[in-house]
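Morning. Coffee machine broken again, so started the prediction first thing and wrote up yesterday's gels while waiting. Chain of 317 residues, entered below exactly as on the submission form.
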Amino acid sequence: MTWRDYAPFGKVSFEHSLQGNVENVPASGGNGYAPGCVVMLKNPVLGQSPMWRNIGSKTSCLFVPEGQLLGYGFAFAGGPVDLEDAAALTTVSLPGLIQQNDLCFASKCVTTGADQFRSVAPTSGKDSLAITINAADPTNSMDAYYAAARDKCVPEFDVFAAGEYVAVDGDDATIAITITGLLATDIALVSPLTTDDTDTINLVVCTANTLTITVSADPEVAHSYSYVILRKRGTFKPSHYIAYAGQHVCVGGGTTEAITVSGALATDIVIAQWAVSNDDDCLIETAIASADTVTITTTDDPGTDHTVNYLVLRAYS
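Came back before lunch.
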């Protein structure tokens, strides 16, 4: 029998599936953890899951998170949903699922049309998600995936992968990013990280082992992108968690909005999208983390009529 010391429970038999406190989630493939063994993180931080269960074998463990998060998680995600043809607004009915304080996001998964999301947010007083396009007539057959982050939820989805991609010579308007293990059924959200112009992200598609981002023009080497891949919870060990999340009402006066996020790091990954927008021409060009700050730049001065949702993702140790 294997015994290990994990305070405050003292000596714990992992072969007997008892709980113990650990500094980090055991690495996948490790030996000596019985199927069903539960471990608790000794010092979980905001956004992490405190409890993990081994769904692997005794000789090759695989710990997955269980229960409520300390902070924001992905309460739900779905799609693809057909966006309304010849209408700027699509309302997705989500009774009993969506909540008014959810931070909502969406990505285009069908057509490479230049139309962009003007806003993605819960409808006022209704059990629905409102997706607004910055054109009166969205491209035919335009479809979208959606997701919502919620504070202190038991998430339906976790982060399979997240990262940043810097365009290189040889890229064209269609960028293929290799992500080992990616499935066609996964949901991807993508934000611009750096840019030197007003090019837009027009399509995001997951296929086996590949995330494909189609942009409005050759990105060359001045562009980079942040992405997060969502998958239903319970079959994999998440790569990242939401360290911080929130809504920022723009102050205007320029095209740069510096959002104070105490604890943010330059190595964090940012996903950002408008929750409120009063025009079609003000788009988010970049969203980047630095020490204690998330900075977004926009194509026009957003004034005080725009609100941005943001997620700050950090890798599990």
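Residues 86 and 137 are 4 Å apart (CA to CA). Going to sketch it on the whiteboard this afternoon.
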